[in-house]
C-alpha cells in the first residue's frame, strides 16, 4: 500500500526526494529562528529550501498592502519553493515565516538544475511533488468557490476537532479567514452563529464541537 500525503505525493517518493537532496554535496545547512521569513514574496527564487520539523505560516501581501495568512503547517518536513525555482527568473509567490526554531537546508537554483538534469528519478519526484501540490491548490480554490463560508468553516472545524481527538482546539480567525478567502468580519459572524446555535462550544480562543452529528449532516446535505 502506498501512503499519500495531502499534496498527493506518496510518502515513499517524498522521503526519497528529501533524502536524495540532503545527500547532495551542495546542500547547505542553515538555522531557522522563530519569526524568520526565509521565503520572501517577490524575491527572485534562486534557492530551494528543505526544512525539518518546522512550524510555519504562508502569507500573501496584496498590492494594497494587506497581508493574508493563506496556510500554516505544524511539524512539516519537506521541500519548499519548488514551483518558483524551476521557472526562469521565477519569484516567490508567497512569504513563509517560521513559527518555531528549526533546521533547514538550501540548494542554489543552478546546482539544483544540474542535479535534476543528471538524475532522472529526482526529476520524476519533483514532477510528482509539483503536480500534487498544484492539484491540492486547485481543490482548495474550488472548495472556496463552490461552497459557502459556513460550509467551509464547519469542514475545517471538524478536521481540527478530529486532530484534537474531539477535544478543545485552537481556531484562529486571521489564519483561517485568509485560508478560506473571507474577511475576518464575515468569518467571525459565521463562527458566532455556530456558537449561538449551540453546535459549537467556545472557551476564550478555543472551540469544541458540541453537536457532531448535526454538523456532519449539514456537510452531507451540501
TrEMBL record:
Entry superkingdom: Bacteria
InterPro entries: cNMP-bd_dom, cNMP-bd_dom_sf, RmlC-like_jellyroll
Pfam families with a match to the protein in the record: cNMP_binding
Domain Cyclic nucleotide-binding per the UniProt entry, residue ranges: 30-116
Gene3D superfamilies, per the entry: Jelly Rolls
Name this protein carries in UniProt: Cyclic nucleotide-binding domain-containing protein
Species this protein is from: Enterovibrio coralii
Amino acid at each position: 500500500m502506498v501512503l499519500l500525503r495531502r499534496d498527493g505525493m506518496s510518502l515513499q517518493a517524498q522521503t526519497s526526494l528529501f533524502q536524495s537532496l540532503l545527500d547532495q554535496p551542495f546542500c547547505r545547512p542553515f538555522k531557522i529562528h522563530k519569526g524568520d521569513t526565509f521565503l520572501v514574496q517577490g524575491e527572485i527564487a534562486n534557492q530551494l529550501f528543505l526544512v525539518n520539523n518546522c512550524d510555519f505560516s504562508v502569507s500573501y501581501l496584496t498590492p494594497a498592502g494587506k497581508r493574508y495568512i493563506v496556510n500554516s503547517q505544524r511539524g512539516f518536513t519537506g521541500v519548499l519553493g519548488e514551483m518558483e525555482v524551476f521557472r526562469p527568473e521565477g519569484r516567490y509567490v508567497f512569504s513563509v515565516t517560521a513559527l518555531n526554531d528549526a533546521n533547514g537546508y538550501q540548494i542554489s537554483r543552478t546546482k539544483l538544475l544540474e542535479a535534476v538534469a543528471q538524475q532522472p528519478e529526482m526529476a520524476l519526484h519533483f514532477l510528482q511533488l509539483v503536480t500534487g501540490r498544484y492539484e491540492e491548490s486547485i481543490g482548495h480554490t474550488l472548495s472556496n468557490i463552490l461552497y459557502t463560508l459556513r460550509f467551509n468553516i464547519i469542514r475545517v472545524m471538524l478536521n481540527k476537532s478530529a486532530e484534537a481527538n474531539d477535544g478543545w482546539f485552537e481556531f484562529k480567525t486571521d489564519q483561517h479567514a485568509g485560508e478560506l478567502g473571507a474577511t475576518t468580519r464575515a468569518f467571525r459572524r459565521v463562527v458566532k452563529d455556530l456558537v449561538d446555535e449551540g453546535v459549537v462550544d467556545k472557551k476564550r480562543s478555543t472551540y469544541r464541537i458540541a453537536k457532531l452529528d448535526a454538523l456532519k449532516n449539514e456537510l452531507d446535505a451540501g
